[in-house]
Amino acid sequence: MGEKKVTEEKEETMKSKTSLVFAVNGERFEIDLSSIDPSTTLIDFLRNKTPFKSVKLGCGEGGCGACVVLLSKYDPLLEKVDDFTVSSCLTLLCSIDGCSITTSEGLGNSRAGFHAVHERIAGFHATQCGFCTPGMSVSMFSALLNADKTHPPRAGVSNLTAAEAEKAVSGNLCRCTGYRPLVDACKSFSADVDIEDLGFNTFCKKGLPCYDHTLSSQVCTFPEFLKKELKSLDDDPRKYRWSSPVSISELQSLLGLENGVSVKLVAGNTSTGYYKEEKDKKYDKFVDIRRIPELTVVRRDEKGVELGAAITISKAIEVLREKESVLILAKIAAHMEKIASRFVRNTGTIGGNIIMAQRKHFPSDLTTILVAARATVKIMSTGSGVQEQYTLEEFLQHPPLEAKSVLLSLTIPSWRPVKNGSTHRAGPEHSQMKYSPLNTHLLFETYRAAPRPLGNALAFLNAAFSAEVSLNKAGDGVVVNDCLLAFGAYGTKHAHRAKKVEDFLAGKVISDEVLLEAISLLKDEIVPDKGTSNPGYRSSLAVTFLFEFFGSLTTNSWLNGGCKEPLRPVAMLSSAQQIVENQEYSPVGKGIEKTGAKLQASGEAVYVDDIPSPENCLYGAFIYSTMPLARIKSIGFKENRVPEGVLGIITYKDIPKGGQNVGTKGFFASDLLFAEEVTHCAGEIIAFLVAESQKIADIATKLVVIDYDTRGVRRAYTICRRSSQEV
C-alpha cells in the first residue's frame, strides 16, 4: 500500500497543471488559468480579491513604491529561496506562479504582534499620512533579510550597513514625512551606524544599541506547502492566453502562430510603467520568456561576459560585480544601479531595456554605456531560426525589430593584456584595432545628469567614454591611441557616437589646445533634436563630461602618478542636523509615538479606497474637457463602438427633474458638477462614464471622443469680458 501511495503521489506531481498556485502572506491561492485575463496585475488581485489592502496604487508606473511587495522564489535544485521586492502595479498575476508574496501585513500586525520594522518606523516618527509607509516597510525588511542571508546577525545586530540602509528606500517616494526619519529608522538596524547621527526617536539612547533581536527568523517568506506544488503548466500552451515556454523551439512554435494573432513577449512587464498605452492594448497571447535557458544564460570566459536577454538588471549587476577587479565591468555595474529603482531593476530585464531603445527610442542609460563598452547582441529570427550577431551600435540603427524576432543575449567583450604589455579589445573589432605602445592603459567612465542623480529618474543626458592611452616617447605627454565617446538620452533616437571627435583625438597628445578643439567639434556633433526640452543645458552637459574625462590627462601630476582613473565625487545623501533641547522635567520634551503609526506601517490603517465595494457595484470615471470655451456637440467613442463592459455615460442632461447640477458650494458661488453646453476651461468635468469594473472605466475614458464647436463662442466671451471691464 505504501509503494502504491508513493507512486500515485509521484504521478500526481508529474502531471502538468492548468491553474496558478501561489501564496500571499502564507495563505494558499489557486486560480484556473483559463479564467484569468493575462493583463491582470498583482495589485489588482491583492486589492480586489484578498483582504490585504496595505498595497496601495500610487503612480501605477513603478515610480513611487507604494505598491511594493516582497516576492520569494524557491530553487529546488539549490534548495534556496530568493527574496526581492517588486512593483505589484507592473507585475502580472500570471507571472507569480509558484511564488510567495509577502505584504506589510505579512510581516506583522496588531493581532500577531508588530514587526520590528513597524515599531522602528513608529518610534522614529517616520509617518504622517501613512499612505506610502507599507511599501517603505517592505523595502526595509527586504534589505535586512538579504543582508543577513550571508551571515547571521552578530550579537543582535544586523549585517546591514548604514550605506545599504540609505539605498533601501531610495526608490520609495514620500511627499510629507521627508526621508531623514525613514532612513534613520532603517539605519538604526545597522552595526556601523553612529547613534549620534540618528534623528530624534523613542528607541536609541546614548550607550545603548538600537537593534535588540533577530529579524530573519520572524517571517517565513516561502511556506513549506508551496515547495511541494512546484509544477509546470499544461503541456499544450496553445490552449491558454498565457504561455511559459521552456525552450527556443517551443517559443518559435508560439511565435509562428497564424497571422492575425497578436503575441506579447513578457518578462518583467516594466515597460508598461513608461509606455502606459501598453496596458490598454489587447493581445491574443502573452508569452513569458523567463524559463528559456538560452535567454537566462550567464557565461564568463576570457572573451568576455555573456548575459541572456531575460536576465534582470539586478542580476546583471550582481554578475558584473563578481569581477570587481575588471574596471569596465565594475563601472557598468555602478551605473546600472542608477537605472530606475531597486524594485523595478529586480524584474526589469536587460533585453527589455535594449528592445525599448531599439523599437521605441526609449532614452536608455543601458544602451549608452554598453555602446561605449563595444557590446554585441545576438538576434534570432523565429521564422528561419537563424541567429545573427551585431554590435549594439549597429543593432540600434536597424529598423525596429520585428515582433517575431527575439533578442537572445548580450556580450560585453574583455580587454586583455598581450605579451608586449599593451591591451586590446577581444571580439569582432579586434582585427581592426592597432596594437598600442608599451605602458598602455584603459580608461572607462560613465556619466549621467538627472533630476534625481542617484537614480529613479530619466537622464537629461547620459554618456560613457572608453579610451586607450599611453605615454608618448618623450614621456611628457599622454597619447590617445583609441577612444569611443557615446552620448544618449539628449533628444535623439538612439545612443550616438561622437565619431568626429574620436577621429580628431586618435593619435594626439592631450593638451589644453587639443581639448578645446575637441570641445568645439563636440558642440557641433551633439545637438538635441528640434523640440527637445532644455537643449542648451543638455549640450553643455556633453562638454562638461568630455572635459572631466580628458581634463586630468593634461596635468603633470597625472603623468607623475601614472595612468589613473579620473577622480569622481562619491554620491551621498544630503546632510542635515537635528538638535532637540532636552527638558529638565519628564515627561516634558519626551518623544511620544504617534497613535496609529504602527497601524499605518503594517498597512492596517483603512483609507477610503480600502473600504470594500458592495456586491453588484458599478464603477465609474470622469470625462474631462480638453478645450476651453468650446460648445459640446456630442460625446462618443472611437470608431463609434461602445467598449465591452461600458454601461453608459452620464451628463448634466441625465440629472433628474428637480435636481441641481451643483458640484461644490462656496460662500459666493457654486461650481457646476458637469459642464453644460459650453466648457469654461480645459480639465472641466463633462460627463461620468459607468462600467462593470474600474479598469474598464479607466480604459474606456481614453477611448472617448468629444466633438467641439468653437465658432463664435470665444468671440462672444471676449466681447462679454470687455463689457464687464468697462462697467
From TrEMBL:
Alphabetized InterPro entries for the sequence: 2Fe-2S-bd, 2Fe-2S-bd_dom_sf, 2Fe-2S_ferredoxin-like_sf, 2Fe-2S_ferredoxin-type, 2Fe2S_fd_BS, Ald_Oxase/Xan_DH_a/b, Ald_Oxase/Xan_DH_a/b_sf, Ald_Oxase/xanthine_DH-like
Keywords: 2Fe-2S, FAD, Flavoprotein, Iron, Iron-sulfur, Metal-binding, Molybdenum, NAD, Oxidoreductase
Domain 2Fe-2S ferredoxin-type: 18-107
Cofactor: Mo-molybdopterin; FAD; [2Fe-2S] cluster
Short name of one Pfam family: Fer2_2
Record keyword Iron present: yes
GO molecular function, one term: FAD binding
Residue intervals passing through the bilayer: none
SUPFAM superfamilies from the UniProt entry: 2Fe-2S ferredoxin-like, CO dehydrogenase flavoprotein C-terminal domain-like, CO dehydrogenase ISP C-domain like, CO dehydrogenase molybdoprotein N-domain-like, FAD-binding/transporter-associated domain-like
Domain FAD-binding PCMH-type: from-to ranges: 235-417
Family per similarity comment: Belongs to the xanthine dehydrogenase family.
Protein name: FAD-binding PCMH-type domain-containing protein
